[in-house]
Amino acid sequence: METKNEILVEVEGLSKKFCKDLRTSLWYGVQDLFKGWKTGGESGQLRDKEFWALKDINFKLRRGECLGLIGHNGAGKSTLLKILNGLINPDEGKVTMRGKVGALIELGAGFNPILTGRENIYNNGAVLGFSRKEINEKIEEIIDFAEIREFIDMPVQNYSSGMRVRLGFAVAAQMEPDILIIDEVLAVGDLGFMLKCYKAIDEMLPNTAILFVSHSMPLVTRICNKILLLDHGIEKFFGENIGEGIDIYYKSFLNNEESKIVDEGILEILDAKFIDAGVNKADNIQVHWMGSISIYFKLLFKVKNTELPLLRLIFYDKEQRPIAIIEENLEMKNLTLKDDILEFEVVHEQIQFSKGIYSIDIAIFKAFSNTPIYRLNNALNFQVKHEVDVWPPFILKANFNEYIIKKTNE
Are 289 and 351 in contact (CB under 8 A)? Predict the structure, then answer.
């Protein structure tokens, strides 16, 4: 009997190692076979050219929960999915899956390309543990959901990638599995079908445990109520605080090394740093919403008699989308150049960026010709603190005033 808080996925001490070299891997396999070792070498030990794809992963997923699995490429997400789906065995630990499992972990996975879409529906349903009678009751709903009725009796090998995704998700969703594993494959579909899928996920979630893998943090925020962050096979974060897990994920992208894409040799940025910006930390500047940021600049002019430049600061959100730029700074012409050094401060008050991590590109142009002479990408990073997590990049301050309807005498 189903219970709302029933644990459907339980992962305990899960570890998996691989070998970087195929020939060495085959040799280790032969050694393990003849020496009777359980899983290659002594427990917990790596041999030459081996590495941990996953190491000591632990989590539980209950009915009604959607776990967002995030991490860089090579973090171990695909390995974890293949273990959960029974495609490969772990070297250490245990995985317990309770109920019927539907999986969309690879485009077209589970489909026989020479069979028709209709025949593949029956095959996939049988793999999920459904009888032919149960599939007959669902097949029309599956075909309608997939929106490929006119092609349903055509071999799947002739389907486009979008058609395969639609059919795969339709089978997984309409057969109502207890556990649903969804990889990045939904990104292949068109926007209309993606929205349809997310609505279906919302409807399924109360009775299903969902593992959702994506590089799109807005989708993770929209769909998931738990998050697991992997980094080189290690569990970096697991919990219900989606925003905190995403912040840790984005911080791993930050690179403090200078990345110049334009340098005409006219000037050099000797220093660019935040000053008096909330709480100062060695690796991060934090400022509260509606606070102010002040940035100190020190420029060295390498060419004599250079006109004072035009400075542009371009702000990027955590998805690296440009979201703001400071206004034109014509007042720089009033600054004083001393010994080829120009020092000044840029202040922005009452910042209304939403909670999250932001970066700044510095672009410098000739003031009158607008010719770029220097650009530094990801020059500065800062974090805005706020009590709520929202995805839009701005939280706009507003006042809510009572509206009084005045009645006029007739």
Answer: yes
